UniProtKB/TrEMBL annotation:
InterPro entries: DUF6093. Residues 37-82 are annotated as: Disordered. Residues 40-54 have a biased composition (Polar residues). Pfam families: DUF6093. This is Uncharacterized protein. It comes from the Bacteria.
C-alpha cells in the first residue's frame, strides 16, 4: 500500500466501503447476470419438463453505457468485411464476486430504452481493489 504523509496510508482501511455510496446515484439501470443456458428436469407438480435458468451471480443496480474506442470497441474482419462490434461498459457496485467472462448480462431496466430486455455477453472483467465500481465489458447478443 502507498503512503502519503509519513506513516499515513493513501487508501485507509475501509475506504472503498465508506465511499461506495457516492456512486449509488449513477447506477440508473438494473441488470441480472448469470451463466448462459439452463437446466431441464421433470416436474412432478407440473407434470412436464421445466426449464430452470442458471442462478444469477448478480442481480441489482448497474450503469450500462457504450464503451469508448479506448475501452475496446473494435471492427474485426468477418468474411473480408469489417464488422462493427459495440462493446458496453457495465459498472457494478463493489464487491461483485462470481462474475466471469462468458456470462450474460440481461438488462432489466435502463434509461436507454433500446437496451431494455437485451442480453450482453461479458468479454472482459476489470479487477481492481482500489475502485468504487467493478467494470465489465460486454458485447450485444444478436
Amino acid at each position: 500500500m502507498g503512503y502519503g504523509r509519513p506513516g499515513t496510508p493513501v487508501f485507509p482501511d475501509g475506504w472503498a466501503t465508506a465511499a461506495a455510496g457516492v456512486l449509488d446515484g449513477t447506477h440508473e439501470s438494473v441488470v441480472t447476470i448469470a451463466a448462459p443456458g439452463a437446466t431441464q428436469g421433470w416436474s412432478e407438480t407440473d407434470g412436464q419438463t421445466v426449464t430452470t435458468p442458471a442462478a444469477p451471480s448478480y442481480d441489482g443496480p448497474a450503469t450500462v453505457r457504450p464503451a469508448s474506442e479506448s475501452e475496446g470497441s473494435s471492427e474485426p474482419v468477418a468474411s473480408e468485411e469489417q464488422v462493427t462490434v459495440t462493446r458496453y461498459q457495465v459498472g457494478l457496485p463493489q464487491p461483485t464476486d462470481g462474475i466471469a467472462v462468458g456470462q450474460v448480462v440481461h438488462v432489466v431496466s435502463s434509461p436507454d430504452a433500446a437496451l431494455v430486455g437485451r442480453d450482453l455477453t461479458v468479454v472482459d472483467v476489470e479487477h481492481g481493489d482500489r475502485r468504487f465500481t467493478r467494470y465489465l465489458y460486454a458485447t450485444l447478443n444478436s
